[in-house]
Design a protein that fits this description.
This protein is an alpha+beta fold and about 220 residues long. The protein folds into 2 domains: about 50 residues; about 130 residues, Beta Barrel (Cathepsin D, subunit A, domain 1), CATH 2.40.70. The protein is built from 5 helices and 11 strands. A 6-stranded mixed beta barrel has the order 3-4-9-5-8-7. A 4-stranded antiparallel sheet has the order 1-2-11-10. A hairpin with a 2-residue loop joins strand 7 and strand 8. The radius of gyration is 26 Å and the shape is elongated.
Protein backbone atom coordinates (compact mmCIF):
# COMPACT_ATOMS: atom_id res chain seq x y z
CA UNK A 1 0.00 0.00 0.00
CA UNK A 2 1.06 3.60 -0.49
CA UNK A 3 1.04 6.12 2.34
CA UNK A 4 -2.51 7.34 1.59
CA UNK A 5 -3.96 3.83 1.75
CA UNK A 6 -2.00 3.15 4.93
CA UNK A 7 -3.46 6.23 6.64
CA UNK A 8 -6.96 5.30 5.48
CA UNK A 9 -6.51 1.80 6.88
CA UNK A 10 -5.30 3.26 10.17
CA UNK A 11 -8.35 5.51 10.37
CA UNK A 12 -10.68 2.59 9.66
CA UNK A 13 -8.93 0.57 12.37
CA UNK A 14 -9.43 3.40 14.85
CA UNK A 15 -13.13 3.62 13.96
CA UNK A 16 -13.70 -0.10 14.36
CA UNK A 17 -11.72 -0.15 17.59
CA UNK A 18 -13.78 2.67 19.05
CA UNK A 19 -16.96 0.72 18.24
CA UNK A 20 -15.60 -2.37 19.95
CA UNK A 21 -14.63 -0.32 23.01
CA UNK A 22 -18.14 1.12 23.26
CA UNK A 23 -19.87 -2.23 22.72
CA UNK A 24 -17.79 -4.18 25.23
CA UNK A 25 -17.39 -1.46 27.83
CA UNK A 26 -13.60 -1.57 27.80
CA UNK A 27 -11.92 0.71 30.33
CA UNK A 28 -10.68 3.98 28.91
CA UNK A 29 -7.12 3.56 30.23
CA UNK A 30 -6.78 0.09 28.75
CA UNK A 31 -8.23 1.28 25.47
CA UNK A 32 -5.80 4.21 25.33
CA UNK A 33 -2.86 1.90 25.98
CA UNK A 34 -3.95 -0.50 23.24
CA UNK A 35 -4.54 2.38 20.86
CA UNK A 36 -1.04 3.72 21.52
CA UNK A 37 0.43 0.29 20.76
CA UNK A 38 -1.45 0.07 17.47
CA UNK A 39 -0.44 3.62 16.52
CA UNK A 40 3.20 2.76 17.26
CA UNK A 41 3.02 -0.39 15.13
CA UNK A 42 1.41 1.55 12.28
CA UNK A 43 4.03 4.30 12.53
CA UNK A 44 6.91 1.80 12.38
CA UNK A 45 5.31 0.07 9.39
CA UNK A 46 4.82 3.41 7.62
CA UNK A 47 8.41 4.49 8.26
CA UNK A 48 9.69 1.10 7.09
CA UNK A 49 7.67 1.39 3.88
CA UNK A 50 8.85 4.96 3.26
CA UNK A 51 12.52 3.94 3.57
CA UNK A 52 12.17 0.48 2.02
CA UNK A 53 14.78 1.19 -0.68
CA UNK A 54 17.41 2.38 1.80
CA UNK A 55 16.67 -0.52 4.16
CA UNK A 56 16.96 -3.03 1.32
CA UNK A 57 20.31 -1.55 0.22
CA UNK A 58 21.59 -1.72 3.79
CA UNK A 59 20.44 -5.33 4.10
CA UNK A 60 22.23 -6.29 0.86
CA UNK A 61 25.47 -4.65 2.03
CA UNK A 62 25.31 -6.38 5.42
CA UNK A 63 24.64 -9.71 3.71
CA UNK A 64 27.66 -9.12 1.47
CA UNK A 65 29.85 -8.62 4.55
CA UNK A 66 28.48 -11.67 6.35
CA UNK A 67 28.61 -13.84 3.20
CA UNK A 68 31.68 -12.59 1.24
CA UNK A 69 30.80 -14.77 -1.78
CA UNK A 70 27.45 -13.00 -2.16
CA UNK A 71 27.83 -10.53 -5.05
CA UNK A 72 26.49 -7.02 -4.48
CA UNK A 73 25.13 -5.12 -7.47
CA UNK A 74 26.44 -1.54 -7.48
CA UNK A 75 25.14 -0.56 -10.92
CA UNK A 76 23.75 -2.24 -14.03
CA UNK A 77 26.24 -4.88 -15.25
CA UNK A 78 28.52 -4.37 -12.27
CA UNK A 79 28.95 -6.38 -9.07
CA UNK A 80 31.42 -6.65 -6.23
CA UNK A 81 32.48 -9.39 -3.82
CA UNK A 82 34.39 -9.08 -0.55
CA UNK A 83 37.65 -10.87 0.19
CA UNK A 84 37.15 -14.01 2.27
CA UNK A 85 38.94 -14.79 5.53
CA UNK A 86 41.45 -16.99 3.68
CA UNK A 87 42.44 -14.09 1.42
CA UNK A 88 40.62 -15.31 -1.71
CA UNK A 89 37.66 -13.95 -3.64
CA UNK A 90 34.67 -16.27 -3.94
CA UNK A 91 31.40 -15.78 -5.76
CA UNK A 92 28.14 -17.69 -5.66
CA UNK A 93 26.76 -19.02 -8.92
CA UNK A 94 24.59 -21.73 -10.41
CA UNK A 95 25.14 -24.51 -12.93
CA UNK A 96 21.94 -25.79 -14.48
CA UNK A 97 20.13 -24.33 -11.46
CA UNK A 98 22.39 -26.00 -8.86
CA UNK A 99 24.26 -23.69 -6.42
CA UNK A 100 28.04 -23.52 -6.82
CA UNK A 101 30.65 -21.54 -4.89
CA UNK A 102 33.43 -20.46 -7.26
CA UNK A 103 36.85 -19.11 -6.43
CA UNK A 104 38.00 -16.36 -8.77
CA UNK A 105 41.47 -17.66 -9.61
CA UNK A 106 43.67 -15.50 -11.84
CA UNK A 107 46.22 -18.30 -11.84
CA UNK A 108 43.87 -20.67 -13.67
CA UNK A 109 42.95 -20.45 -17.33
CA UNK A 110 39.44 -21.86 -17.65
CA UNK A 111 36.19 -22.75 -15.89
CA UNK A 112 37.03 -25.86 -13.92
CA UNK A 113 34.46 -27.73 -11.82
CA UNK A 114 35.05 -29.95 -8.84
CA UNK A 115 33.54 -33.46 -9.07
CA UNK A 116 31.13 -32.64 -6.22
CA UNK A 117 29.83 -29.50 -7.93
CA UNK A 118 29.46 -31.38 -11.21
CA UNK A 119 27.41 -34.08 -9.46
CA UNK A 120 25.24 -31.42 -7.83
CA UNK A 121 24.57 -29.98 -11.29
CA UNK A 122 23.25 -33.34 -12.48
CA UNK A 123 26.33 -34.68 -14.29
CA UNK A 124 27.36 -38.33 -14.20
CA UNK A 125 31.03 -37.78 -13.44
CA UNK A 126 31.79 -41.51 -13.64
CA UNK A 127 31.02 -41.59 -17.36
CA UNK A 128 33.14 -38.57 -18.31
CA UNK A 129 36.39 -39.11 -20.20
CA UNK A 130 39.26 -37.70 -18.16
CA UNK A 131 41.77 -37.98 -20.97
CA UNK A 132 43.20 -34.45 -21.01
CA UNK A 133 46.28 -33.94 -18.80
CA UNK A 134 46.85 -30.73 -16.88
CA UNK A 135 49.75 -29.33 -14.87
CA UNK A 136 48.53 -28.53 -11.36
CA UNK A 137 50.09 -27.46 -8.09
CA UNK A 138 50.18 -31.12 -7.04
CA UNK A 139 51.56 -32.53 -10.29
CA UNK A 140 49.86 -33.80 -13.42
CA UNK A 141 46.07 -34.23 -13.19
CA UNK A 142 43.35 -35.03 -15.67
CA UNK A 143 40.11 -33.31 -16.56
CA UNK A 144 37.13 -33.93 -18.87
CA UNK A 145 35.99 -31.15 -21.25
CA UNK A 146 32.24 -30.41 -21.12
CA UNK A 147 29.72 -27.78 -22.25
CA UNK A 148 27.58 -26.14 -19.59
CA UNK A 149 24.04 -25.46 -20.91
CA UNK A 150 23.56 -22.73 -18.28
CA UNK A 151 26.02 -20.92 -16.05
CA UNK A 152 25.11 -18.09 -13.69
CA UNK A 153 27.79 -16.08 -11.91
CA UNK A 154 26.31 -13.47 -9.61
CA UNK A 155 23.99 -11.58 -11.96
CA UNK A 156 25.66 -12.77 -15.17
CA UNK A 157 23.74 -15.44 -17.05
CA UNK A 158 25.61 -17.43 -19.70
CA UNK A 159 24.64 -20.33 -21.92
CA UNK A 160 26.60 -23.04 -23.77
CA UNK A 161 29.76 -22.36 -21.80
CA UNK A 162 32.85 -24.56 -22.46
CA UNK A 163 34.27 -25.84 -19.18
CA UNK A 164 35.89 -28.91 -17.65
CA UNK A 165 35.43 -31.28 -14.72
CA UNK A 166 38.49 -32.19 -12.69
CA UNK A 167 38.99 -35.88 -11.96
CA UNK A 168 40.45 -35.37 -8.48
CA UNK A 169 38.53 -33.69 -5.62
CA UNK A 170 38.87 -29.93 -5.34
CA UNK A 171 38.24 -27.51 -2.51
CA UNK A 172 36.29 -25.23 -4.87
CA UNK A 173 35.39 -24.86 -8.52
CA UNK A 174 37.40 -22.25 -10.45
CA UNK A 175 36.71 -19.22 -12.59
CA UNK A 176 39.96 -18.46 -14.41
CA UNK A 177 41.26 -16.13 -17.08
CA UNK A 178 39.06 -17.54 -19.84
CA UNK A 179 36.09 -16.22 -17.87
CA UNK A 180 37.68 -13.00 -16.65
CA UNK A 181 38.79 -11.99 -20.17
CA UNK A 182 35.13 -11.79 -21.19
CA UNK A 183 34.58 -8.91 -18.75
CA UNK A 184 35.14 -5.24 -19.44
CA UNK A 185 37.02 -4.72 -16.18
CA UNK A 186 38.23 -6.62 -13.14
CA UNK A 187 39.27 -4.24 -10.37
CA UNK A 188 40.62 -4.93 -6.89
CA UNK A 189 40.50 -2.16 -4.31
CA UNK A 190 41.59 -3.32 -0.89
CA UNK A 191 39.31 -6.19 0.11
CA UNK A 192 36.80 -5.61 -2.68
CA UNK A 193 36.80 -7.10 -6.18
CA UNK A 194 34.58 -5.48 -8.81
CA UNK A 195 33.45 -7.17 -12.02
CA UNK A 196 32.07 -5.11 -14.92
CA UNK A 197 30.62 -6.41 -18.16
CA UNK A 198 28.69 -5.22 -21.18
CA UNK A 199 24.93 -5.49 -21.52
CA UNK A 200 25.13 -8.27 -24.07
CA UNK A 201 25.96 -11.81 -23.00
CA UNK A 202 29.75 -12.40 -23.02
CA UNK A 203 30.95 -14.75 -25.73
CA UNK A 204 31.86 -18.25 -24.61
CA UNK A 205 35.49 -19.28 -24.98
CA UNK A 206 37.04 -22.73 -25.30
CA UNK A 207 38.08 -24.46 -22.07
CA UNK A 208 41.69 -24.16 -21.06
CA UNK A 209 44.02 -26.00 -18.73
CA UNK A 210 44.33 -24.78 -15.14
CA UNK A 211 47.61 -23.06 -14.56
CA UNK A 212 50.32 -24.79 -12.58
CA UNK A 213 50.16 -22.13 -9.89
CA UNK A 214 46.45 -22.66 -9.22
CA UNK A 215 46.14 -23.52 -5.49
CA UNK A 216 42.57 -24.80 -5.60
CA UNK A 217 43.17 -27.92 -7.67
CA UNK A 218 43.80 -30.95 -5.48
Amino acid sequence: MDQTNALQALGLLALVSSGVIYARGVKLGEAARNAAIWIGVAAIALIGYSFRTELNDAFVKVRGEVIPAYAISNAPHEMTVTRSADGGFYILGQINGAPVRFVIDTGANGVLLSPDDAKRAGMDVDTLKYATPAETANGVGFYAPIILPQLTVGEMKLSSVPAAVNKAPMSSSLLGQAFLRQLDAVEIHGDTLTLKWKSQEPAATPPALPAKSSPAVA
